[in-house]
Design goal:
The chain has about 850 residues and is α+β, with helices and mostly antiparallel strands. It has six domains: about 50 residues; about 100 residues, Beta-Lactamase (2-Layer Sandwich); about 130 residues, Beta-Lactamase; about 110 residues, PAS domain (Beta-Lactamase, 2-Layer Sandwich); about 160 residues, Alpha-Beta Plaits (2-Layer Sandwich); about 250 residues, TIM Barrel, CATH 3.20.20. Helices cover about 40% and strands about 25% of the residues. An eight-stranded mixed barrel has the order 25-26-28-29-30-31-32-33, surrounded by four helices. Strands 7-6-12-11-10-8-9 form a seven-stranded antiparallel sheet. Helix 21 packs parallel to helix 23. It is flat and about 130 Å long. The N and C termini lie far apart (about 95 Å). About 30% of the residues are buried. The N terminus is likely disordered. InterPro entries: Biofilm_reg_signaling, EAL_dom, EAL_sf, GGDEF_dom, Nucleotide_cyclase, PAC, PAS, PAS-assoc_C.
Length: about 850
């Protein structure tokens, strides 16, 4: 075992064991006559200096031990590894162990519960020049534990860092704290212990019971200042700073018992308490460290009439009595204060005069019923104070009829104005859209229903307003920009409608305007045109500028509907028709539009059952090598043959399926049918023909697309390369982790991923480069204009450049002429499809085409 120096060698001044031999040698030198006199004199001075130094060292060592053992608390000296170098007498007594069992051992011999790295925080603190303090449990020689508070400091000795640790026994303090806590709990008086900032430190059960908080788990929350009002013995409102504990903290002196009234607003309950406080000082402190507040409940002792009246004033409750036979009305001072009168109210008529007309009649009728049937009175009524300010009252009363002096009604009168105003604020909030400050959906439905039920209101029109291209701004710039746009749009609509219409944000980017047509039949159209005019100016967000327009539908009552929902639905239908046809326009609802709605509903009804009735089929349009004319793949196109509606083109029913959500089920059928057909062609010897399938954005969101594709490929035994999925540009803006994960899984399956109709919608290169896609499809919308239309040529060149720069494949859709084919070849587009090559072909005809091409 490595030798570690004991205390005599390390912590205290060292004693040199060779000093005596050196002194003897020096004395011999002094007596050596053969040496020169000067040398003997030098040796003599050295001998005396060595004797003096040895004496000083011994004196220092004795002083160290005297001081070390005089400390009444256990003191240990450790090296920086935690080995005990020395222990004083108080330590041996406290740990009940001899010194030799501790010195030279690790500190764990005194505290076996210390963690392995317990010295790290100690040394970090000491390195900062600070004292490290911790409460732990030390162990005596017999194995018993006792709590200590250890103060550690660092010092250097002989170039080594050491630690001196003083342990103060906390056993007595802990016992005192326990007895103190037990004493608090048995006291029948309430006790609150507050710190020097007036914050609650401790309380007892009696305090909670007296203050009515025995059922409350969070006493701090129960004592929330906003829930309490306080008065002195005379009923004068006082602040927290005037309470006895606050005075004691300020002055440092005890306060004598004072009677105070505490009113708890949530419970509407007043308690009278006798309160006193005493300060607690830290040793040597001049300001109180804590304050003890003692109180008892004296409510029952203070129930005399004067204090009861002042307590009622605190709760804004006044008393009244009406002698019916004499029509004499008596009111307490608080009741008069509530009404704002400085003189007596003489009769019940004076009280009724303070109320609004409707509530005046209600109270008069209730008073008569109370007299006639001895029925209690309890009404909330609205009126005005004497100064004209608004007033709400709760009036309660009971009749006393069998009295010799006649009939009287006695009761209370409470000021509930604040509560009513809060309720009104909540009502307004409940009716208001928090973003724009306009009415919200529920409020508009209520207002519209009220007006349509009023026979005197006359004609009503609803304008349904939808912002064009709002989603693009919201998706590209984020929701904050979208909120700014909605606010700006709301302001423009409000300015355009002025005072002629009631305006609401009906949801998302949709607004409603309700106006009266009784006196002006042209008002709806005039307001709509003013709104469209207001949207001609672009919207600006930071450095971006957007042309946002509006599409408006108008429906009139009772012509277009006699119920709110019907009228709004028809206005919505007119708006939708306007958006579909032109955008930035208005459309009135009409019988023709109603027929169109019915036709749409009819299509949607049949569409919902089409897959179950095997009414769908797929045709396959070849994708052709533009240079050699060979078919390299096929795009699956859906067709719908209904026994009532006949042959339906995709552009007639896909939009309906997107709206209703049926596109998800239809898309799943298309995917499985395309895979089945590809497997059938493979089994017929045509090899693996890649089939492209369009995937709806709704389908992308509503199901586990990657799992659906994996299952379809597995079921038909196809590799992923046999399938191409075409997505609309909308997926580009969904830069969500789920979107990226789905694309990554599909790509791992070997599926070809393409963005369809690129350039038409939400194109954003920032998003395009993040998705693991294989190619783009150039929209027919631009292909049909080449090579004659310069704008279409420019778009096609731009898209081709994007594809090349990102290393993506490119397919041109809608090629119908030879000049278009040549242009695409010159542009570097390798693959195309369109009527120049073939329309969508039935599976058998597509197979014959493939067979013929091979021959």
């Amino acid at each position: 075992m490595t030798h570690r120096p004991l205390p005599d060698e390390a912590a205290m001044p060292p004693a040199n064991d060779g000093t005596a031999q050196i002194v003897a040698s020096l004395e011999a030198a002094c007596r050596d006559l053969s040496l020169p006199a000067e040398a003997r004199d030098l040796f003599a001075r050295a001998r005396e200096a060595l004797r003096a130094a040895s004496s000083d060292a011994e004196t220092a060592r004795l002083r160290y031990h005297a001081l070390f053992d005089a400390v009444p608390d256990p003191v240990s000296i450790l090296d920086e590894t935690g080995i005990v170098l020395d222990l004083n007498k108080a330590g041996m007594a406290a740990y009940r162990r001899p010194r030799e069992e501790i010195v030279g051992q690790p500190i764990e011999v005194l505290n076996p519960d210390l963690p392995k790295d317990h010295l790290r925080p100690v040394l970090e603190t000491l390195n900062r020049g600070e004292t490290y303090v911790i409460e732990v449990a030390n162990m005596r020689g017999d194995g018993t534990r006792f709590p200590v508070e250890v103060h550690s400091a660092g010092f250097m000795h002989d170039g080594r860092r050491c630690i001196v640790a003083v342990a103060r026994d906390l056993s007595a303090r802990r016992a005192a704290e326990l007895h103190y806590g037990q004493l608090l709990e048995v006291l029948d008086k309430g006790v609150l212990v507050l710190d020097d900032h007036g914050r609650l430190v401790q309380t007892n059960a009696a305090a909670m019971r007296i203050l009515g908080a025995d059922e409350h788990h969070d006493f701090q929350q129960y004592l929330r200042a906003a829930d309490w009002a306080m008065v002195d013995e005379g009923g004068r409102p006082i602040t927290t700073g005037e309470l006895p504990p606050a005075q004691t903290l300020r002055t440092g002196k005890a306060t004598e018992s004072r009677v105070l009234g505490l009113y708890h607003r949530p419970e509407r309950r007043l308690r009278w308490l006798s309160v006193s406080s005493v300060p607690l000082f830290a040793p040597g402190g001049r300001k109180p460290l804590q304050v003890l507040s003692f109180f008892s409940d004296v409510t029952e002792l203070k129930r005399d009439s004067a204090l009861f009246d002042r307590a009622q004033a605190l709760a804004h409750i006044g008393g009244w009595e009406w002698e019916v036979d004499r029509d004499a009305l008596y009111m307490t001072d608080e009741a008069l204060r509530i009404l704002g009168h400085d003189r007596g109210v003489q009769s019940i008529g004076d009280l009724l005069a303070a109320l609004c007309e409707a509530d005046c009649l209600r109270l008069d009728a209730a008073l008569q019923q109370t007299i006639a049937g001895n029925r209690p009175l309890d009404l909330e009524v609205e009126g005005l104070r004497a100064d004209g300010s608004p007033l709400w009252l709760r009036i309660i009363g009971e009749a006393e009829i069998n009295r010799s002096e006649g009939t009287s009604i006695t009761g209370t009168l409470q000021d509930i104005t604040e509560r009513k105003q809060e309720q009104e604020t909540l009502r307004v909030r409940a009716r208001t859209d928090p973003l724009t400050g306009l009415l919200n959906r529920d409020a508009m439905l209520y207002e519209l229903d009220t007006r349509m039920r009023d026979p005197l209101h006359g004609g009503i029109a609803v304008l349904y307003i939808d912002l064009d291209r709002f989603k693009m701004v919201n998706d590209v710039l984020g929701h904050a920009a979208g909120d700014d746009l909605l606010n700006a749009a709301a302001r423009r609509i409000s300015r355009a409608a002025g005072t002629e219409g009631l305006i609401a944000r009906f949801g998302g980017d949709e607004f409603l305007v309700v106006c009266n047509t009784r006196d002006d039949d042209t008002r709806p159209e005039r307001i709509a045109k003013a709104i469209l005019e207001a949207f001609t100016e672009s919207f600006r967000f930071e450095k971006e500028e957007f042309a946002i327009t509006a599409s408006i539908g108008i429906a009139r009552a009772p012509r277009d509907g006699d119920r709110p929902q019907t009228l709004i639905h028809n206005a919505d239908a007119a708006m939708y028709d306007s958006k579909r046809r032109m955008r930035n326009g208005l459309q009135e609802f009409s019988p023709e539009l109603e027929q169109s709605q019915q036709n749409r509903l009819r299509v949607e009804t049949h569409l919902r059952r089409a897959a179950d009735n095997d009414e769908f089929r797929l045709v396959y349009q070849p994708q052709v090598d533009l240079r050699h004319g060979t078919t390299i793949a096929a795009e699956a196109l859906i067709r719908w043959q209904n026994h009532q509606l006949g042959e339906m083109r995709p552009d007639h029913f896909i939009g309906h399926a997107e709206t209703t959500g049926d596109i998800v089920r239809i898309g799943r059928w298309v995917l499985n049918e395309a895979c089945r057909q590809a497997a059938e062609w493979r089994d017929a010897g045509l090899g693996i023909i890649r089939v492209a399938v369009n995937v709806s954005y709704r389908q992308f969101l509503a199901e586990d697309l990657a799992g659906t594709v994996r299952e379809a490929l597995r079921e038909h035994g196809l590799p992923g390369s046999a399938l191409e999925l075409e997505f609309t540009e909308r997926v580009l803006i969904e830069d969500a982790p789920d979107t990226l994960r789905t694309f990554a899984v599909l790509r791992e399956l070997g599926v070809i991923l393409t963005i369809d109709d690129f350039g038409e919608g939400y194109s954003a290169l920032n998003y395009l480069r993040r998705l693991p896609i294989h190619g783009l499809k150039l929209s027919q919308l631009f292909v049909e204009g080449v090579p004659g239309n310069h704008s279409d040529v420019a778009v096609c060149q731009a898209v081709a450049g994007i594809a090349r720069s990102l290393g993506l494949g490119l397919v041109a859709e809608g090629i119908e002429s030879e000049p278009q084919r040549r242009f695409m070849l010159e542009l570097g587009v390798p693959v195309g499809q369109g009527f120049l090559f073939a329309p969508g072909l039935p599976p058998d005809e597509f197979a014959r085409r493939m067979t013929t091409a091979r021959v």
